[in-house]
Design brief:
globular, 32% strand, 234 residues, alpha+beta
């Protein structure tokens, strides 16, 4: 669970589906408070509520290093559904534009994935937490508003590996730079194949050298903090 000891820690947490990254931060911060500690807590890279996987929390003086960890490349595994789209590019909004995918072959699908590798400019999706004139984009999107002038930023898709094709589903593993929206890449993937597509599920498996295999659940992290407090009180 702890990637570094001392005056503050890096806690590796397996974020559950349905939780925001801030939900996890708030839970751990509250746990420290209950345990009798006053400690800063922040996270190193937001995960969407519908995504699961590795979330690094920095506590105490380690929060000063958050920007360094946010800059690390990240690896995700997930599933894209082809032949249909959604406005949010994930499961938050209804499907539309259904079309057949029976003509797609594995090699064509792998070639489309490879075509998305490398550097590219990417606009944040409307259903994202990016700020626009004092409002989150997702707040505007849920009110039916569209912001065309969303600022694009350069990202890099280091690799886009197709793990399994089970049409209409494609299971993948993707290594990307900071700031890349996998939902947008899933949409672009569907567009490249000419059938549309959206992100069905997503799990972050690594951030730089930190792996999900070393992470603990929120409950286990809470228990560890409380157990450590009890030990120090003895």
């Amino acid at each position: 669970m702890t990637a570094s000891e001392g005056d503050g820690d890096f806690l590796l947490v397996d974020k559950p589906v349905g939780w925001t990254s801030f939900d996890v931060v708030a839970k751990i911060r509250n746990t420290y408070s209950v345990a009798g500690f006053r400690r800063k807590v922040g996270h190193c890279g937001t995960l969407d509520p519908r995504a699961t996987g590795l979330l690094i929390l920095a506590t105490g003086k380690k929060t000063k290093q958050i920007s360094n960890l946010e800059a690390l490349d990240k690896v995700y595994e997930g599933t894209i559904k082809l032949g249909v789209m959604t406005e949010s590019h994930d499961t938050e909004t209804p499907e539309y534009g259904e079309c057949s995918v029976v003509h797609l072959g594995v090699e064509e699908i792998k070639a489309a994935a490879a075509a998305l590798e490398g550097k590219r400019m990417q606009k944040p999706p409307m259903h994202s937490a990016v700020w626009h004139k004092g409002k989150r984009l997702y707040e505007l999107a849920r009110k039916g508003k569209h912001v065309a002038e969303r600022k694009a930023r350069e990202i890099c898709v280091n690799s886009f590996e197709v793990l399994l094709v089970d049409l209409p589903f494609v299971h993948f593993r993707m290594d990307v730079s900071k700031g890349a929206y996998i939902r947008v890449l899933a949409h672009d993937f569907g567009q490249t194949l000419g059938v549309g597509g959206y992100l069905v599920s997503l799990r972050r498996v690594s951030i730089g050298e930190y792996s999900i295999s070393d992470a603990k659940s929120v409950a286990e992290t809470v228990e560890s903090i409380l157990h450590g407090a009890n030990d120090s009180a003895k």
